[in-house]
Design brief:
single chain, alpha+beta, five-stranded antiparallel sheet, two-stranded antiparallel sheet, 16 helices, 7 strands, DNA damage, Alkylbase_DNA_Glycosylase/TA
Length: 296
């Protein structure tokens, strides 16, 4: 049965769920008559379909359908509190005015956001999205219910542990990232506790896995529990974008940390406003060409 929920705040549905999308070819996320998501829940695989009029209407299919529906408000930012957020830069204030429906949603699940986050370590997004898509197609399962054609549920930790060296190679995943994913898959049930711990304690639990550092932990925290202060330090582009948007000049991570200090403990929220502002940093050279590990 469909469930409805009336958010007690302005809600930008695509803006809230957009960070879960891993490129235009993401087979676990689609925009087609609403938004479609797949997930590996504690109860099993599931598909969620969400539409918005005055109310939010959601349907779900699969063994994990009820699990997803029960957590719909949290997924759409109901647990997010931005009441204490203060704008210290005109661009952030203007973006906040234009995007009043921005919330930080929480999937409540670590594994489904950890898998693509590890794949995005130290490679271009094109490479990472290609690898994620290929792993979903090969080791995920078909999306339950009437999902758009080709949608898949991401691979479970058990499925990842069954990937052979050759199959990692075919998916374009180098040795360092595959070792990190295998180590995470081996303790995936313990890592789910990070979503309950939240904050720095949750991020610290994730960093206990070899190969998961501050950047990856922040990327997971932003999505799994809507962490408002988890900044992706170490990102190749982020400090430059924030610097150009707010100061008109490039910054490194240390400079970005200093610039964002007044926004603590909601520094990630400030970064989201920068990302959604439309600001772009100048391009001074050629882009990096994606590497194809399958040809090595």
């Amino acid at each position: 049965m469909p469930r409805t929920w009336r958010p007690p705040f302005p809600l930008d549905l695509a803006g809230v769920l957009g960070p879960l999308r891993r490129g235009p070819g993401d087979v676990a996320y689609r925009e087609s008559g609403g938004l479609w998501l797949t997930a590996t829940t504690p109860d099993g695989p599931a598909t969620l379909h969400v539409t918005r009029a005055d109310d939010v209407t959601a349907e779900a299919w699969g063994d994990g359908a009820d699990w997803l529906l029960d957590r719909l408000p949290a997924l759409l930012g109901a647990d997010d509190d931005d009441s204490a957020f203060e704008c210290h830069h005109p661009l952030i204030a203007e973006t906040r005015r234009r995007r009043p429906g921005l919330r930080l949603g929480a999937t409540g699940r670590v594994w489904d956001v950890l898998l693509p986050a590890v794949l995005e370590q130290k490679v271009t997004v094109v490479e990472a999205h290609r690898s994620y898509r290929e792993l979903c197609l090969k080791f995920g399962t078909p999306a339950p219910g009437p999902a758009p054609a080709g949608m898949r549920v991401p691979p479970t930790p058990r499925a990842i542990l069954g990937v052979t060296d050759w199959e990692w190679h075919r998916a374009g995943v180098d040795g360092a990232r595959r070792r990190t994913l295998v180590a995470a898959a081996q303790v995936a049930h313990r890592l789910e506790a990070a979503a309950d711990l939240r904050g720095e304690e949750g991020r610290a639990l994730l960093r206990k896995v070899p190969g998961i550092g501050g950047w990856t932990a922040a990327e997971v925290a932003q999505r799994a529990w809507g962490d408002p202060d988890a900044v992706s330090f170490g990102d190749f582009h982020l400090a430059g974008l924030v610097g150009w948007a707010l100061l008109g000049r490039p910054l490194d991570d240390d400079g970005m940390a200093e610039l964002l200090t007044p926004y603590a403990p909601q520094r990630h929220r400030a970064v989201r406003y920068v990302e959604l502002s439309g600001a772009r940093k100048p391009r001074f050279g050629p882009r990096f060409s994606p590497r194809d590990y399958r040809a090595m």
